Amino acid sequence: MGRVIxxxxxxxxxxxxxxxxxxxxxxxxxxxxxxxDPLENPIWEVGDWWLYTFVTxxxxxxxxxxxxxxxxxxxxAWMLGISSEQEAQRHAVINHNPFLGRMxxxxxxxxxxxxxxxxxxxxxxxxxxxxxxxxxxxxxAEVTSTNSGFTSVQASxxxxxxxxxxxxxxxxxxxxxxxxxxxxxxRLRMQLNNYGNEFTGDVFFIRAIDLFDEKYExxxxxxxxxxxxxxxPSDGDFNFLVWYLDVEIDSGSSQGTxxxxxxxxxxxxxxxxxxxSTEKGSLGTIPSNSGEYSVTVTLNGGSSIIHLKMAGxxxxxxxx
Length: 320
Prior knowledge:
By secondary structure, the protein is mostly beta strands. The protein folds into two domains: 49-200, Beta Barrel (YmcC-like fold), CATH 2.40.360; 207-319, Sandwich (Jelly Rolls), CATH 2.60.120. It is built from one helix and 20 strands. A ten-stranded antiparallel sheet has the order 4-3-2-1-12-11-10-9-8-7. Strands 13-20-15-18 form a four-stranded antiparallel sheet, covered by helices on one side. It has a four-stranded antiparallel sheet with strand order 14-19-16-17, with no helix packed on it. A hairpin with a 4-residue loop joins strand 10 and strand 11 (173-180). The longest helix has 10 residues, at 85-94. The two termini are 41 Å apart. Mean pLDDT is 88; it is low at 1-31.
């Protein structure tokens, strides 16, 4: 990837982790899974769902309903998607939610680089320890408490970060998760708002590969970058590319432009902004055309910011 000018900023969020009993639309016993022991490995059903709020310093707050879209006996795994296609696209390009796609029956393990990672280790018992990898870090986890169906876990990483999370045994999934990096920045907070079963409607999952992520700021002039679309490493051409934009243009005479051009000369994404313009969390898709893409950005305004992310996506849909 070529790069001319790009810098990044990070907004500090104050740590706020909390646990509470939630209302639900589950069965008459208030249980979202067929397991009757909140310390045991829950057994999900297709149609089980959990509504979460996600907070990150880069992208703010969004909510998504995670739904069990399929039970893959071939992979011995559940397939977890989102009830909104736009939210599935958002989570594909922001890429902060590891609990999508395959989750193994055993320990509800999530997959990173094709390998199941036991973020949970059933049956829960105070003092139990284990290891897993997540977000590119190795973690040493320990159960610190179990109380009224809630199990609390603390994990430390090899790079100095910390994960604090609580599993709701009656909801059958996470109640709250907080990831704090080695600089004491809260990278992700994930909070359960509601849960239930027998979801009806469409469920979407986008298997994504990050292609581009640059933040342009603090200059007057033009910047050029490139990225390459070579398709998914194992599943062929992408169905589309997903883009995400955060833009803030200064007042006065400030302005900004962005264009993304594929190797055939087509410009599927172009934007222009005048003084005092903002475009926060804008999202969309463009066709996937295998080959090199060029990105051109112009800025006139010392504190103006244009942040562009691109990901290649393979789309799966279930109708429940």
